[in-house]
Amino acid sequence: MENQCNPLHMFFFPFMAQGHMIPTIDMAKLFASKGVKATIVTTPLNKPTISKAIEQFKGHSNNIHIQTINFPSVEAGLPEGCENVDLIPSPIYAPAFFKAIRMMQEPFEELLIQEQPHVIVADMFFPWATDSAAKFGIPRIVFHGTSLFSICAAQCLKKHEPKKNVSSDTELFLIPELPGDIKITILQMPTVMKDEQSAKLFREIRESEGKSYGVIVNTFYELEGVYSDFYREVLGIKNWHLGPFSVLSRNNKEEEITSYRGKEASIDKHECLKWLDTKEINSVVYLCFGSTTSFLDTQLREIAIGLEASGKDFIWVVRRKKEEVEEWLPEGYEERMEGKGLIIRGWSPQTLILEHEAIGAFVTHCGWNSTLEGVCAGVPMVTWPVAAEQFYNEKLLTEVLKIGVPVGCKKWVRLVGDEIGRNAVEKGVRRVMEGEEGEEMRKRVKVLAQHAKKAVEEGGSSYSQLNALLEELSLFRK
Questions:
Q1: Over 50: is that where the pLDDT of 255 sits?
Q2: Which of 7, 93, 145, 292 is most buried per CB count within 10 Å?
Q3: Exposed / middle / buried, residue 102 (Cβ in 10 Å: 0-12, 13-18, 19+)
Q4: What string of DSSP letters covers 405-419?
């Protein structure tokens, strides 16, 4: 693509959270495989995680580099070493974390002077990166770590503010302009629409997006083409769908990247797959709620009882340590579930699990990485949104694509999640795992999984978009 002596040099700057770092690393690998010199910018504490992911990238690892800039934790009012969302000790520190991010602009610009990249791909949470890039005549591309559907929904809601005409927080109302006739309630909208400090950040994000060179999204046209077109033609934002990045990683036969994504798994992958090998096809339900969601003990207990009542075999990822007092588990639960249920405390090899033929359903918080991984594995979902843009993603899965059923969450609650009873858990699992409705969802998502694989192959929709973007950037550089 580019002259090997003077390749296109791109900066990739991920937000410091697992859900943003994982796809950004995958994206950097994608561009590196095309001959681009890719530099990932991060903080010292996050460097080892990124280094380990790059080590597995055989064949093109020489094209990927890491540069670090200091994260001003203490100066911003955070505990020392708090350089990742996972390390924020309490939600009250969130404003300080974003203050620290704003303070990174100056050292980032110093790095631009030192490295002189040709292109910057910076996460949406660095709105100031557009101004920094403009100072040096460099195109800044925004990376959105979520779906095109959720981006468009949020834009439409902000543009029209229909909530002013809604009589109550629980009343369903139509999202104006958005294709699909999608309805939502005030309670399901992210609090960025209600909290002034967060609203200011998202105004800055929208403004920087409008001034940027365009937007990269981890998705594919066959999944969200109507929203890609809407984003470009109606909302006026140029965008490129280059995913699914997780499929690109799995397509690389030389590496086994799926065994390490973000953190070391808390269970040996061979032990996990061996357990799944003993199960029948589509007989196991997999539950995981991402890297930041924490449920109260009472909610975990309801999930446990609901799973047992469903009668289904399961793998359940819980953000608890083995040594913690486990009052959330019903007495004798793991003994009763021996052979039927596998509880993973910590981090799981999620893509490996989802791809196993024994997995018949995925209970998910609807984070975009997990959602895409479920789609690409061809697994129908039980949707349990908690925060961020997850209620939008739920609408995409349940009402547009029709490959999932809602567990019944009614309100957006930061990190902890809406309370759902055992009967709803049992019902959601059974709807996906049993009967004609579940089978129809399974057929639809299997077709989407095939489209996902074809999208990144030669001649596919994402493959073609990548080549078009690289050609455009090369011409811009000249």
A1: no
A2: 145
A3: middle
A4: EE----S--TTT---
Q: Within the chain, what is the greatest distance between any pair of CA atoms?
A: 68
Q: What percent of the chain has pLDDT over 70?
A: 90
Across 26-40, average pLDDT: 95
Q: Give the distance, in angstroms, between the CA of residue 3 and the centroid of all CA atoms in the same chain.
A: 34
The whole-angstrom separation of Cα 127 and Cα 209 is: 8
Catalytic residue among 20, 144, 241, 365: 20
Q: Judging by beta carbons within 10 Å of its beta carbon (0-12, 13-18, 19+), is residue 223 exposed, middle or buried?
A: buried
Q: Whole-angstrom Cα distance, residue 426 to residue 10? A: 48
Our answer to whether residue 9 is catalytic in this structure is no
| String of DSSP letters for 186-225 | GGGS-GGGT-HHHHHHHHHHHHHHHHSSEEEES--HHHHH
Q: Which amino acid is at 35?
A: G
Active-site residue, from 26, 60, 118, 123: 123
Task: Tell me if the bond preceding 23 is cis, omega within 30° of 0.
Answer: no
**371 pLDDT above the threshold of 80:** yes
Q: Is 268 a catalytic residue?
A: no
CA 227 to CA 208: how far, in whole Å? 20
Tokens 């990166």 belong to 129
